[in-house]
User: Fold these one by one.
Assistant:
Number 1:
Amino acid sequence: FWFFITLSVESSIIPIPMVINEYRLYLPSFGAFAAAAGGALILLKGLKSDKLRMITISFIAIIPLIFSYAAYARNAVWGSEISLWEDVVKKSPQKARVHYNLGTEYLSHGLSDRAIEQYMRALQLNHRHAKAHGNLALAYISKGLIDKSIEHSKAALELNPNISDAHMNLGSLYLFYKKNMNEAIRHYEAALRLDPRNAKAHLNLSIAYKDMGLPDKAGLHSAKARELNPDLFR
């Protein structure tokens, strides 16, 4: 009764995106294990033979050893973010979210090719995954594929125009690679509308305005960037 009542708080008739999650069993299991322990004691008290009682105790003692080994093996999976999400992908290969998360871990460790593979798989499963497009753009930059990066940054913004990072990425691509100052400024300003305290956007805007021969505007954004984050100038 305890198990199902406590489990119903998160797992009931209400549809949820994550049907299975380890932590949901922590509280429900307390009741189940307490009941199992109580049942074992009742069983032992009911046994008349000492030999049978010792056999039963030995069998019960083995159970924690089995679970201890299982916990040890599970901890190996949790040893790193990459090993964890690789394990999840093996068990849930048809979920876009897990491929996206694994791709993000690969990208953060400099494994661009693996990251691209996972992001592409995420998009095959969910073609409207805006963040997968956005992170694909970052992975392609690391490989020097600027046009592909622009393509996926635009795709991300088509799906969700409120992704500040995608605007920042496009601004930097136009500023540093394509030398298209008008487009760079447009995207940096969009990023600032979403995140007014984005010091990097102000700094890059100052560079763009300086290249356009507008020192006054460049100075204003440079001063704002310094005010928000002095470390950018060290």
Note: The chain has a mean pLDDT of 94.
Number 2:
Amino acid sequence: MVARGALIFFAVGLMHVTLLAADEAERQKEEYVRYALEHDGDPARGEQLFNNREKLQCSNCHTIAAEEKSGPFLEGVGDKYNREQLIREILYPSLSIKPGFEQVTVVTTDGRVVTGRLERANQVIHRIIDAKGKTINVDTDTVETMQVSPVSMMPANLERTLSLTEFADLMAYLRTLKFGVQKGMVAGGKLIDIPRLKTPVTFLPIHPDDIKFDNPVWCGALPGTENDMLVIEHQESRIWRTIRSAYSVQQKLFLDLGDQTFISNNQGLMCVAFHPDFTTNRRYFVKYEVEEDDQVKTTIAERRASADGLKDSGQPSRRLLEVFQPAFNHNGGCLLFGPDGMLYTAFGDGGPQEDPNGYSQNRSIFHGSMLRIDVDHRDENLPYAIPPDNPF
């Protein structure tokens, strides 16, 4: 009994030490954030650090504006992120990972384990670029499992490698990496200059600061209303309605599909399209991912709005189309009625990058294709009709 009590005391003590260590690590990160915000740093010294492969792995994984390695090229990061965002992206690399650069682990039938970025996957090979920039080809027929990790390949404890001054220098260099596109190409292959605007583009808010949306991916007018707008929250799988009057803007829930949707960095509720006769029939269509039988599918479903058209009716969805997605990105997104009354959509090329399976060249499958369906009629054994004038 004494031994058991001592063991419990030791375990509790160990957990306490671990929590203290985690708190100390977090304090150290925030100290680096504050220092880099308050000190400009030296870009020239930062560039030397970036290219010092003995001290850092930056140049093993990244180029500035060339072929991408295990990490994305960095041209434009000084434009894409403000100062604090860039600092936190470096110190907390797993907070947001660029789509297509998730870390994968492939286990082969002979027990081999390969970790890195999946650059290509098809019926022949899985091509992986590891954290040192090395390309590794794995025969597809030897792949037993492949798992995607939410943890970035980028080192999570850079502050343990660099002094405060060195970190500020590195941030100063990354902030100099602006978009360098200064020329464009017109018909005939002629290059023309693209001057920067004398007056920068400005953005004006259309709703007050207290109304916020989590990762919005689509917005548009609600048919039948004068001032109502709908906004889709991608990874919450919700549609919000904003109601604008002369005095205020209100926010109300239109639809919540969170309990039906498979959600990842690239997957969730993507789009909504309203039937051309929505104001009378209340029919509308949504596009989102589901997971069934260990497969992720992009789904198009028909739903009904309430009698007043101001929110979803709560009735079950009617599925029209669903397509298995072999990768975690390139799943398509848009859903739109054309002037012909037909519903147009696409399911992407299957990913993960550059259509590795050549799906866009295959007319017998939905991947890599633009689809056009008739939602007002049904063919035999289909919940929709194929327009007779479809070209393929």
Note: The CA atoms of residues 230 and 252 lie 10 Å apart.
Number 3:
Amino acid sequence: MKNPFSLSDEKLAVLLNGLSDWSEENEEERKYAEDQRKKAVDLKKTLVNGDYLSTISDVELAENILSYSRTLEGPAHIRLGKPRISEQLPNIKRNLLYLSESADEPFIKAARILEGDYRIPIFAKAFWTPIFQARYPDRLPNWNNKTERCLKKVGINLSTSKLNIENKYRLLSEAFLYLRNLDPKQDFHSLNHLMHFGTEIQQGIKMIEKLLEDEPENGLSSKIGKWRKEHIAAKRISVRKEAETKARNLLNSKAGSFVENDLREFFKLINKDYWKDKVQNNRFQMAYVGKNVNELVKQLDIVNEWIVELWEASESKIEKLFDRFYSQNPIKNAGTAFPSVILYLRDPSKYNLCFKKMEQGLSNLTGFSQYGYSGNYYIAYNNKVTEFKTRYGLQPQEIDIILCIDENGDEANQDCPFAARTFKLLRGLHKNPTRDFYNKHKDDFKMHLENPFQDIFRKV
């Protein structure tokens, strides 16, 4: 079997040994895989047992499914209360019988249940895949968000739109089988714990980062080379540099005293880009165009105050400035990236842009996992981007292209007003259609959904 990972066999062995050592150090973690095996045995006797399903009453089956849902990791069970389970019980029972008794191949069964004609709304991968694993312990691994995040770090992308659910599951299964062959002590249950180790435990996160750094060719260099060839022509960089120089000169001469036309010209300059053989004004998509700029112009005094403070602040005050900006949210429609834009123009070799799409791309490519907007967060993010730029020889004017291409996927449409973040937000809202969810992500909805729609309608 060919190694599907971006780490060599030797590095994968180190990672698996690290998982085993960490598990042994903590009694709760040591028991995890064994507890999962016991749960799988119980499932095999009940929810994936045709005889059991044929004889149990609907009331008792609903209670057992409810009890099972409460054992799921993460928030998967939140919306699966007794009313919803009772409402969908005929379809759930149909799927369980199909999984238990059909002669169809395991991956075809999984695809039909997860995305095909047997799909049940709300009952997603986190609900079904532990049941799949109980039925096929050596074919269908457990699969949740941690699985995708961990495997993406080491070169296996299960979130790509290029593969259907059946082929994604085959890819996942091959990855688990490859790791099990490297270390026969592992099974799919202990390997599932690797997903937690590599995404939630600092020891595991750091270990993966170190192994990727030590790997002489982890595939990322060639990937970045491909992106640069396809997306970053010399003309594009020169247009960006020229526009940045003009914006910098404007700040040098008028920071803190912009009039309306100055502010509009400033945002026009920082948005200047070159794509498909023409100059465009969409470098940062919807962040600083249209309605957003109009709202910023209305707050000219406070915008001027923050521009001059960021432009002139000593390096020792940067962290506190970001703390204050993120906690006070003083400028409506400025977004979280605004302070980084001013610092970036001040010194592109030292300070990096910090847009949300870039943050996600950095996480995808390097495993960067710090969260929560603060001065400390920006410093950590900035250091990681600088390290990434240095390692791959990237210019300041191309780092946002590279990180945003990764966030959107290799085939991102540069002209599309919507980002991967847009659809992630919509999926989140679909799963959690509450005012609390919207309010928690209100700024993201405005930037990635509402503003792009408004821009489209204006153009129409």
Note: Strands lie at 273-275, 278-280.
